[in-house]
């Protein structure tokens, strides 16, 4: 995945203001990651980006507007891939009933999407730090992350757990379990260095992502009482999602009859 600087520079901008705008965003990303939102002043940003102190308000309205622009940019780049994965899981759950094959496939797609996304964002280390800060000290951008990424996944996990247990997805036990499972997957973003130290992985290769996704899928299926069927290789026409960069590897998939 190219760095955020390349992603931003690829976007068409007014040539009269594009370079200044880009430089402010690139500088702000690193400063916010290092010092937090409150630890960086507009004067700090302007000095580091070598722009007029009024440039931040001119281009983004405020420091908060600049901060939000960084999040919107990264999430927008990932939106198409994320929406396709949500649609694929929704279609599976809509016709799965109690079929363990289709329910397991839904688990696998959710795990693959999240873990593949974490691998892609590995190349956006500064943005990953911003996400960690929002989770530690929730603010307005936490609400954005929750609404655009967390809530849709939690709703599908609750539907999946409820279906496996024969309970409504709104029950407290189902929602609690869905949150625990989501937390388990999301925590891998912060424990990646530990995993690397234990297994000698300095980065995620397609094969390592396959292993990790398979382990997470198996663990979730066992936790909710699903019998895990044997996996076959991915279909030859399996779509590939992009998160503003190289193709994300697809883990081996079950033949569910649902086209993504």
Concise account of the structure shown:
With 260 residues, the protein is mostly helical. The protein is built from eleven helices and no strands.
Give the amount of beta strand, in percent: under 5%
State the CATH superfamily name of the largest domain: Tetracycline Repressor, domain 2
Q: pLDDT below 50 for ≥5 consecutive residues: which ranges?
A: 7-16, 233-260
Extended strand count: 0
Q: How many strands, what sense, and barrel or not for the largest sheet?
A: none
CATH class label of the largest domain: Mainly Alpha
Helix and strand succession?
HHHHHHHHHHH
The number of domains: 2
Mean pLDDT: 82
State the assembly state of the protein chains.
single chain
Total helical segments: 11
**Bulk shape:** elongated
CATH topology of the largest domain, anyone?
Tetracycline Repressor, domain 2
Provide the structure class. mainly alpha
Helical coverage, percent range: 55-70%
Q: How far do the termini sit from each other? A: 22 Å
Global Rg: 20 Å
Q: Based on the structure given, which CATH architecture of the largest domain is correct?
A: Orthogonal Bundle
